[in-house]
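Let's sit down with a protein and look at its sequence and fold side by side. Please make up or recall a protein chain and show it to me in full. Label the sequence line and the structure token line clearly, so we can match residues to local backbone shapes. Go ahead whenever you are ready, and we will take it from there.
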Amino acid sequence: MKIINTCDEIKASFSNGFDMKIWRKYANKISKELPPKCENDAKNYDFNKQILPVMAVALNNEKLDHVSRNFQAVIKTLNENLSKLFNKEPDINIILYLGLCNGAGWATTIDGKATILLGVEKIIELDWGSETNMRALIFHEIGHLWHELNGKMFFPVYTKRRKALQQLYCEGVAMMCEHILCGDDEFYHQNKDDWLQWCYKNENEIKNEYLRRMNEKESVQVFFGDWCSYNGHSDVGYFLGCRFVRYMMKTYSLKEVANFSYRKLNKEFIDFTGMVIEPLKYEDYHKCSNIWNMKAQPLSEKWRDEIASGNRMVFIYKINGEFIGEGALVFDTGDPDYTIPHKRVYVSRMIVKKEYRGRGIGSDILDFLIAKAKEMGFSEMAIGVDKDNIAALNLYKKFGFTNVLFDGADEDGEYFKLMKTL
């Protein structure tokens, strides 16, 4: 582990105030990769309004000395704390430097080596220069590096929903590492003016709003960053992320959580927020009518017999008790064209209530049905779809349904039957 404290260099280089040419020269001494990395990250900032004022405050010898002293104090005891997470000293760089408002902490890679960049200008701006806050900041960024070294920190984020879940996940794992390293399950360096008490009191509201924004494909930026706030409180996403990870750790180890796929995380988040997929009970079948936009009707005798015999399983997707989606599996219909008993399972129905479509719920249900079929030992899955239902066809293709078994027609028109190897 290499520790670099550039506070003396900052004081010597910027004695006459901030200058961009001087900054590039200063940053280049740390690494040739650093200047373009910082400038690219800050390119969307208004330099004169958002960066220069912060620099003016940060370039104060007393404040720099205060941060520097506490940084050194934390570093002295760092290794004994790291043993709570690492079997041996991690091969990382920790650099206290003057950035371009790129963040108080930034876990990244410099010259091919895992690096924690600590921006002294942001630390001073946020008043995080105390030994306690400095320790928490370093521990949090180490948590990000631990995740990267021991798990799957990133997954493809080609939708806003995925991006929102990934951000919550990454910050949650880092917060959990911070708690482990600090030895305090309720330590949040954001906790000022009863911040934590407010978060606990409003936890359900925070969950529901985060979920709503994910489902509606809205930005979740208000939950992250000192410059943003949700109902007047900044960094609420760090609290929610940590609570989410702690919820998963009731069943899994932190290392297992750190290796979860998007699909697994999505399922866990559904459970965490009160959204559940569960087997349909006979007495609740009439409630499915609100999914189909039709009058309530009892469970048909055929379906009752198939469920009782184990040949059909029906699952309901609910949010806070409301029936909003359904998926059904048939295991043995006797139809040799698409079902091979004990080998292939057929998705006989998958539907989402109209006003909830386009929110990823269909993907959740299909993912659940695939996992259930695998769990039961099936090796193939078949599904039927109207050939004009382009959205459904695209969804099934995304999940690997690529082979057309045959096409035909029924009273509703022409359709395809697709297959997937499980």
Observations:
- The longest helix spans residues 160-182.
